Amino acid sequence: MSAGYSRAEETARSYYNSDDADEFYFNVWGGEDIHIGLYESPAEAIATASRRTVERMAAKLTAIDSNSQIIDVGAGYGGSARYLAASLGCQVTALNLSEKENERDRQMVEAAGLQGRVAVLDGSFEHIPCSDQTFDACWSQDAILHSGNRSQVLAEVHRVLKPGGQFVFTDPMQTDDCPPDVLQPVLERIHLPSLGSPDFYRSTATALGFVEESWEDLSAHLITHYQRVHDELASRRSELVNRISAEYIDRMLQGLTNWVNAGQAGHLVWGIFSFRKA
Q1: Per the domain annotation, does 2 fall within a domain?
Q2: Residues 102-118: pLDDT tens digits?
Q3: What is the average pLDDT across 223-240?
């Protein structure tokens, strides 16, 4: 295991550093934005819907200007970091544990001419390599589920935020009353014993000293998104099999189906949380 990474993080790091995963997420899932999208129709382009999520979340940020510092924890390919820097004029640190994703991110930062506003940082969100009270806002999209210690992630976010700093994030969650064992097909795919829940995030954040500002339940889009990605992968299989192994494609198609089934059964929740450090 690499120094500084928990077992769950090392599992995620190894996975996202694999050639199969890199090809899949960059070329199928959404490219710059590898998170759940907001769909105006079930057949909408994944990248379009995913960028709409970024715009919806960014609209919840307050008092951000060219002097503001934002950290994106679990930044993936950094699409959100570049969007925030370009649209709000702020400075953004994109923290991510996959070196392969970070290399693509740095190339896109340079291509966009944002080297002075976006810094790509290899590292763990369970131990954020930044000083206390550095950032005006923290941002995260569908990343915290990969931690085996989500309370520690929130504690680290609280630590690096300035007083009054804002924490805006999404995460695929299980419902507060989710029955035991029904999510096993989903959890086995991501090698974790559980997902967070809205009550978990609320209680943990409150205990740390956050105040909840808003919660927007957008769970229907989780089902649409995973089905949309499934259908895109299936329709492009013959094209992609030269770049992504057949075994990976088969596993991914089944994994995406498991997420859709769990969502349709009412066991999953997804939406946008906004908290503020008191």
Answers
A1: no
A2: 999 999 999 999 999 99
A3: 97
Query: In sequence order, what DSSP letters do the residues of 131-163 get, joined into one string?
Result: -TT-EEEEEEES-GGG-S-HHHHHHHHHHHEEE
**7 — pLDDT class (breaks 50, 70, 90):** confident
Distance, CA of 158 to CA of 160 (rounded, Å):
6
**DSSP assignment, residue 215?**
E
Q: Structurally, how many domains does the chain consist of?
A: 1
Rounded distance between C-alpha atoms, residue 150 and residue 144, angstroms: 6
Q: How far is CA 25 from CA 15, 49, 163, 215, 272, in A?
A: 11, 15, 36, 27, 22
Q: How far apart are CA 170 and CA 2, in angstroms?
A: 27
Name the pTM for this structure.
0.96
- CATH code, 189: 3.40.50.150
Distance CA 227, CA 150 (A): 27
Beta-carbon contacts of residue 166 (< 8 Å; ≥ 6 apart): 61, 62, 136, 137, 138, 213, 274, 275, 276, 277
What pairs with residue 198 in β-bridges? none
3-state SS of the chain: helix, strand, coil percent to 5? 45, 20, 35
Inside any domain, residue 1: no
Let me know if residue 149 belongs to a domain: yes
Tell me the residue range of the domain where 223 lies: 7-277
**Which residues is 148 bridged to in the sheet?**
none
- The answer, yes or no, to whether residue 2 has pLDDT greater than 70, is no
